[in-house]
Amino acid sequence: MKLITALIQPHRLQKVKDELFKAQVTKMTLNNVLGCGQQAGYTESFRGQLHEVNLIPKVRIEIAVNEDFVQRAIDAISRGARTGKIGDGKIFITELAEVVRIRTGERGKIAIG
Ligand SMILES: Nc1ncnc2c1ncn2[C@@H]1O[C@H](COP(=O)(O)OP(=O)(O)OP(=O)(O)O)[C@@H](O)[C@H]1O
Ligand SMILES: [Mg+2]
Question: Measuring from atom 10 of ligand 1, which residue has the nearest CA?
Fold first, then answer.
């Protein structure tokens, strides 16, 4: 099992969700965050405005998946998020040790859904 954490541009969220749904990835957690990547100290645009401050609004998506869904989730996020410009985002993949569905007590591959 892996935990996929993606930082994307807020205006690409709908496209990323569409691509994930097409790839049959339907479970996710989202939150709004502030972040900066390798352009720290430079400008990046958000809603057409250039920002000189380092921290730019991003959407953080967390998806826990079984191994057979890892690549298709990465591909879907990339297809939805990529514009080819700086700030398109980043995907972090980490090993996921355990998952527990609270209602049933199920664990692991079954609990992930
Ligand atoms: N090494 C990192 N650690 C933690 N968060 C990161 C890291 N790199 C990027 N992020 C997060 O991802 C968001 C998007 O990063 P961004 O796309 O700007 O990456 P980048 O490495 O600067 O690539 P690019 O040159 O394409 O802009 C950042 O705003 C930040 O929230
Ligand atoms: Mg950047």
Answer: 37
Q: Is 96 in the pocket of ligand 1 (CB under 6 A)?
A: no
Residue 91 Cβ contacting ligand 1 at under 6 Å: no
94 token code pair: 């980490």
Enter the pTM of the model: 0.91
Backbone angles phi, psi at 90, to 5 degrees: -150, 150
Tracing tokens 């998952």 back to the chain, one arrives at 99
Query: What is the separation, in whole angstroms, between the first and last Cα of the chain?
Result: 11
- Retrieve residue 82's tokens: 């990529």
Across the chain, which has 113 residues, the per-10-residue mean pLDDT values are: 98 98 97 88 66 82 97 98 95 98 96 91
* Dist CA 10 CA 17 (whole Å): 11
Ligand 2 ion: Cβ-proximal residues, 5 Å cutoff: 37, 39, 86-87
In angstroms, rounded to a whole number, what is the distance separating the alpha carbons of residues 102 and 113? 13
Number of the ligand 1 atom closest to the C-alpha atom of 85: 26
β-pair type (49-51, 44-46)? antiparallel
